[in-house]
Amino acid sequence: MDAKLRELGRLPQNKFCAECDERGPMYVDTTAGTFVCSDCSGILHGLQPAHRVKSISAASFTADEVTFIQQTGNKRSKEFYLANWSETDTRPSSKDGDAFRLFLKNKYERRKWASNIEPVQKILGHDVPTLVVSKNTDAPASPGARRSAAHAAPASPGMHRSAHAAAPVPAHVV
Q1: How far is CA 115 from CA 54, 77, 85, 125, in A?
Q2: Half-sphere CA count of 28, side-chain side, radius 13 A
Q3: What is the tens place of the pLDDT at every residue in 83-98?
Q4: Whose CB among 11, 22, 32, 46 lies 3.0–4.6 Å from 37's, allowing a Cys bridge?
Protein backbone atom coordinates (compact mmCIF):
# COMPACT_ATOMS: atom_id res chain seq x y z
CA MET A 1 0.00 0.00 0.00
CA ASP A 2 2.77 2.42 0.93
CA ALA A 3 4.53 1.98 -2.43
CA LYS A 4 1.28 2.67 -4.30
CA LEU A 5 0.71 5.80 -2.20
CA ARG A 6 4.21 7.07 -2.94
CA GLU A 7 3.62 6.38 -6.63
CA LEU A 8 0.40 8.44 -6.50
CA GLY A 9 2.30 11.25 -4.76
CA ARG A 10 4.72 11.41 -7.70
CA LEU A 11 1.95 12.14 -10.21
CA PRO A 12 2.23 15.73 -11.51
CA GLN A 13 -1.15 16.80 -10.06
CA ASN A 14 -0.17 15.51 -6.58
CA LYS A 15 3.36 16.93 -6.35
CA PHE A 16 2.07 20.13 -4.75
CA CYS A 17 -0.15 20.69 -1.71
CA ALA A 18 -3.81 20.63 -2.78
CA GLU A 19 -4.52 23.68 -0.61
CA CYS A 20 -1.55 26.07 -0.83
CA ASP A 21 0.54 24.69 -3.74
CA GLU A 22 3.64 24.10 -1.57
CA ARG A 23 5.95 21.63 -3.31
CA GLY A 24 6.38 18.12 -1.90
CA PRO A 25 3.38 17.45 0.36
CA MET A 26 4.16 14.96 3.13
CA TYR A 27 0.60 14.21 4.26
CA VAL A 28 -2.58 12.75 2.81
CA ASP A 29 -6.02 14.07 3.65
CA THR A 30 -8.01 10.83 3.58
CA THR A 31 -11.26 12.79 3.92
CA ALA A 32 -10.79 14.71 0.65
CA GLY A 33 -8.40 12.24 -1.01
CA THR A 34 -5.65 14.82 -1.45
CA PHE A 35 -1.94 15.35 -0.80
CA VAL A 36 -1.23 18.26 1.57
CA CYS A 37 1.65 19.98 3.34
CA SER A 38 2.29 20.07 7.08
CA ASP A 39 0.77 23.53 7.63
CA CYS A 40 -2.43 22.74 5.74
CA SER A 41 -2.77 19.35 7.45
CA GLY A 42 -3.06 21.13 10.80
CA ILE A 43 -5.75 23.51 9.53
CA LEU A 44 -7.71 20.70 7.88
CA HIS A 45 -7.62 18.66 11.08
CA GLY A 46 -9.27 21.62 12.86
CA LEU A 47 -12.26 21.84 10.49
CA GLN A 48 -15.70 20.53 11.41
CA PRO A 49 -15.97 17.70 10.86
CA ALA A 50 -12.24 17.20 11.27
CA HIS A 51 -10.41 15.92 8.21
CA ARG A 52 -8.40 12.78 8.80
CA VAL A 53 -4.81 13.54 7.82
CA LYS A 54 -2.00 10.98 7.82
CA SER A 55 1.74 11.20 7.28
CA ILE A 56 2.83 9.51 4.05
CA SER A 57 6.01 8.15 5.65
CA ALA A 58 4.88 7.34 9.20
CA ALA A 59 1.28 6.08 8.89
CA SER A 60 -0.18 2.97 7.39
CA PHE A 61 -3.06 3.15 4.93
CA THR A 62 -5.90 0.72 4.30
CA ALA A 63 -6.61 -0.61 0.82
CA ASP A 64 -9.85 1.42 0.79
CA GLU A 65 -7.98 4.63 1.63
CA VAL A 66 -5.43 4.07 -1.13
CA THR A 67 -8.20 3.29 -3.61
CA PHE A 68 -10.07 6.47 -2.62
CA ILE A 69 -6.91 8.57 -2.96
CA GLN A 70 -6.20 6.96 -6.34
CA GLN A 71 -9.73 7.74 -7.55
CA THR A 72 -9.68 11.30 -6.20
CA GLY A 73 -6.28 12.96 -5.86
CA ASN A 74 -5.66 16.69 -5.94
CA LYS A 75 -7.06 17.22 -9.43
CA ARG A 76 -10.44 15.52 -8.95
CA SER A 77 -10.89 17.01 -5.49
CA LYS A 78 -10.30 20.49 -6.91
CA GLU A 79 -12.74 19.80 -9.76
CA PHE A 80 -15.44 18.97 -7.21
CA TYR A 81 -14.80 21.43 -4.34
CA LEU A 82 -13.91 24.38 -6.60
CA ALA A 83 -16.33 23.63 -9.46
CA ASN A 84 -18.03 27.02 -9.09
CA TRP A 85 -14.86 29.01 -8.45
CA SER A 86 -14.87 32.17 -10.55
CA GLU A 87 -12.17 34.47 -11.82
CA THR A 88 -13.24 37.05 -9.22
CA ASP A 89 -12.57 34.63 -6.34
CA THR A 90 -9.11 34.82 -4.85
CA ARG A 91 -7.35 32.31 -2.65
CA PRO A 92 -5.58 33.97 0.25
CA SER A 93 -1.96 33.18 0.98
CA SER A 94 -1.42 30.29 3.35
CA LYS A 95 0.77 32.71 5.35
CA ASP A 96 -2.37 34.76 6.16
CA GLY A 97 -3.59 32.30 8.81
CA ASP A 98 -7.11 33.59 9.56
CA ALA A 99 -8.01 34.34 5.94
CA PHE A 100 -6.62 30.99 4.75
CA ARG A 101 -8.49 29.12 7.52
CA LEU A 102 -11.71 30.88 6.43
CA PHE A 103 -11.00 29.89 2.81
CA LEU A 104 -10.73 26.21 3.82
CA LYS A 105 -13.91 26.47 5.94
CA ASN A 106 -15.73 27.92 2.93
CA LYS A 107 -14.29 25.21 0.68
CA TYR A 108 -15.01 22.16 2.84
CA GLU A 109 -17.52 23.02 5.58
CA ARG A 110 -19.77 25.39 3.67
CA ARG A 111 -18.97 23.95 0.22
CA LYS A 112 -19.20 27.46 -1.14
CA TRP A 113 -17.75 26.58 -4.56
CA ALA A 114 -18.54 22.85 -4.68
CA SER A 115 -20.35 21.12 -7.50
CA ASN A 116 -24.09 21.04 -7.01
CA ILE A 117 -24.21 17.42 -8.14
CA GLU A 118 -22.78 14.72 -5.92
CA PRO A 119 -20.57 12.23 -7.74
CA VAL A 120 -22.66 9.38 -9.19
CA GLN A 121 -20.67 6.73 -7.31
CA LYS A 122 -21.44 8.42 -3.99
CA ILE A 123 -25.16 8.21 -4.76
CA LEU A 124 -25.40 4.81 -6.44
CA GLY A 125 -22.29 3.00 -5.22
CA HIS A 126 -19.47 1.51 -7.26
CA ASP A 127 -21.61 -0.85 -9.38
CA VAL A 128 -23.17 1.95 -11.42
CA PRO A 129 -24.99 0.68 -14.52
CA THR A 130 -24.26 2.30 -17.85
CA LEU A 131 -26.66 5.22 -18.22
CA VAL A 132 -27.86 6.08 -21.69
CA VAL A 133 -29.51 9.39 -22.49
CA SER A 134 -30.81 10.16 -25.93
CA LYS A 135 -32.40 13.22 -27.42
CA ASN A 136 -36.15 13.08 -27.83
CA THR A 137 -36.80 13.60 -31.51
CA ASP A 138 -40.00 13.82 -33.48
CA ALA A 139 -38.76 11.23 -35.98
CA PRO A 140 -41.10 8.26 -36.36
CA ALA A 141 -39.97 5.24 -34.38
CA SER A 142 -39.59 1.79 -35.87
CA PRO A 143 -42.42 -0.69 -35.12
CA GLY A 144 -40.16 -2.57 -32.66
CA ALA A 145 -39.31 0.63 -30.82
CA ARG A 146 -43.01 1.53 -30.58
CA ARG A 147 -43.79 -1.89 -29.07
CA SER A 148 -40.96 -1.55 -26.51
CA ALA A 149 -42.07 1.95 -25.57
CA ALA A 150 -45.68 0.80 -25.19
CA HIS A 151 -44.68 -1.90 -22.69
CA ALA A 152 -42.29 0.25 -20.67
CA ALA A 153 -43.54 1.74 -17.42
CA PRO A 154 -43.84 5.52 -17.61
CA ALA A 155 -41.11 7.48 -15.91
CA SER A 156 -42.03 10.07 -13.31
CA PRO A 157 -41.51 13.77 -14.07
CA GLY A 158 -37.84 14.64 -13.70
CA MET A 159 -36.81 11.03 -14.34
CA HIS A 160 -35.08 9.43 -17.33
CA ARG A 161 -35.30 5.79 -18.24
CA SER A 162 -32.00 4.04 -18.70
CA ALA A 163 -31.55 1.39 -21.34
CA HIS A 164 -29.67 -0.73 -18.79
CA ALA A 165 -31.47 0.06 -15.55
CA ALA A 166 -34.67 -1.58 -14.34
CA ALA A 167 -35.96 1.56 -12.68
CA PRO A 168 -36.07 5.25 -13.61
CA VAL A 169 -32.92 7.20 -12.85
CA PRO A 170 -33.17 10.72 -11.31
CA ALA A 171 -32.62 13.33 -14.03
CA HIS A 172 -29.91 15.13 -12.02
CA VAL A 173 -27.78 11.93 -12.05
CA VAL A 174 -27.82 11.67 -15.83
Answers
A1: 26, 11, 10, 18
A2: 28
A3: 999 989 999 999 998 9
A4: 22
